[in-house]
Every structure is written in structure tokens, then in C-alpha cells.
Amino acid sequence: MKKSGLKTILVTGGGGYIGSHACKALADAGYLPITYDNFVYGHQSAVQWGPYYEGDICDRNSLAEAFELYQPEAVLHFAAYAYVGESVINPGKYYRNNVVGSLTLLEVMRDYGVKKIIFSSTCATYGLPAYSPIDEVHSQRPISPYGASKLMIERIISDFEVAHDIKSISLRYFNAAGADPAGKIGEDHNPETHLIPLLFNVALGRTPAITIFGSDYETSDGTCIRDYIHVADLADAHLKALLFLEENMQSQSFNLGGGRGYSVIEVIREAEAVIGKKIQFNFGARREGDAPILVANSNKAKEMLSWAPNFPELKDILRTSWKWHSKNL
Fold first, then answer.
1. What are 48-68's pLDDT values in tens digits?
2. Catalytic site includes residue 112
3. Which residues contact 290 (CB under 8 A, 6 or more apart)?
4. Does the N-terminal or the C-terminal CB of the chain have fewer CB atoms within 10 Å?
5. ω into residue 191 within 30 of 0, thus cis?
6. Phi, psi values for residue 254, rounded to 5°
């Protein structure tokens, strides 16, 4: 049975980086977020705004028990393996967890009559961009098993709408970055593969230098270009997507990004300016599954969700990240 009179929202992967920030946004808006996480990559310490149920999304019985106990009105689905490079060398791990786990979740939603899901998708579903910035009508041709797994889930969700009337919002976001402005939670992956925390690990003396994967891309300085979006802005978009679904019961897909691309070298220079010291780096070979340029056109989200980034400048994103890393790591 429910433990509160608040609207309960099940947040799979709520102990993870983006999921925990979404839980904070939900709680601030008057919801009760219920974290469902196996804590393989997530952290129990990040669960601060509601109870948690420890379980795996591939475990139907555990999911059913959580649904029975908390009777959620909607699901925010973050739980997934998300290392692009690893997905290339171990695709079975990604298809089993991401696709089979999501299918199991949707079947339990169907069984318990839960009709709303906000899905954490990715720009990796687009693959190599035919044009930039990328909008939602761009072809989806992923070049990594990670991206392919997310696209498969989007298709499964669409089929479940036809068969079971489950409405969805798929949020295809670009590079999440930053930390809670209040400093309560931040980015802490193990292993860490994201550029900004890796830069700060060097700045803090935890590692001697960062390796840049590829210096021969057709970009201004030869390094990959990415669109960085603050994690709190992503959390806000999930909240607005939930409100949109509650009011309209209309399935949609939205890109979430800042609309401006930065090369790896440009991010390093911005980070150095924020912290006031040099960051050592070297070049390595290209990493399989990486597109040269990924920049978002997020106009649809701005128009339909009334969403816009509160942290549009990279330097401000970096400042929140550095504040958290320098105090917690």
C-alpha cells in the first residue's frame, strides 16, 4: 500500500546520476519519488528524497512487488547500462539489460494499469548526423549497441501504446553534465568515462592526465564536438514531461540540449578557466561508436513543454560540477 498521500512516481535508476537529480525535482514539485535500483552503478547515498526498493529491472517479481507496495501513478525510466564503448565489445550485456529489462518493466506496468512512462532515451539513437543541429525528425540509425538498445526500447514503448494504451515521452538528451546547484548530489560513475569529471579528476590529482579519443575528426581542432546540458535542466525537463503527459495523455519525443557544440579541447580550456589551473591531456585512438558532432535542436521541447535551460553557458555548468567534485571527491 502507499506510504503517503502524495502522488507516487516510480523512478528506475533513481540512485544514478540523472535519476537522483530527477528525484529531487519531483520531490520539490510535491511528488513522492520511489527509487527502484539495483545499485550496480547507482548510489544509495544519492537517494535523499523518498524511499527506495532494491531490485533489478529484469526481475519481474521484484518489480511487481514494488508496484504492489507503492502503487505508482507513472514511471520515470532511467535504469540502463550506458557505456558506449563497452556496448561495442559486449553488446549482449546491453541488449539483455536495457531491452529485456525495459520490456519486463512495461509488462508490469501493463499488469498494474500504469499508463504513463517518461523514458530516458539518447541522442545516440540518431547515429552519424546528416545535418546539425539534430531535430526529432532526423533519421535514427545508431552506430553503437547502446544507441540501438535505446531505439529498440522506443519502438517497444510505441507498440505498447497501440496494444495497451500506455502513453510515453521519450527524452533524447545529449551530454549530461554539472551537479546539483545546492551541492547535495553530483556525478560519480565507476568507471568514470564522462569528459568533465575526468578533467576534474586530473585537476584534483587523482589521475595524471586525460586521454582524448581521436584528434583527426573533421572539426575545427580535430576533436569531437558535443552539446552539454546541465543535469538539473534535464531533471526539470522530466518533470515538465510528466506534467505534459498528465494533462494531455499524448505520446511525444523531445531532444534536450543546449543547442551549442563544444569540442573536447574547448571544454578543457573552459574547465581550466573555471578552476584556474592547467589540465594535462594526451591523444589516443578514436573510440568505436563515437560520432564526430552531436548538437541538439531542442525547439520542440521549448515550445511544447515550455522548457528552457537554466544553465545555458558551459562555464556555469562547469562551476557546479567543480564545486561538487572539489568538495566530495
1. 999 999 999 999 999 999 999
2. no
3. 84, 213, 214, 224
4. N
5. yes
6. -140, 140
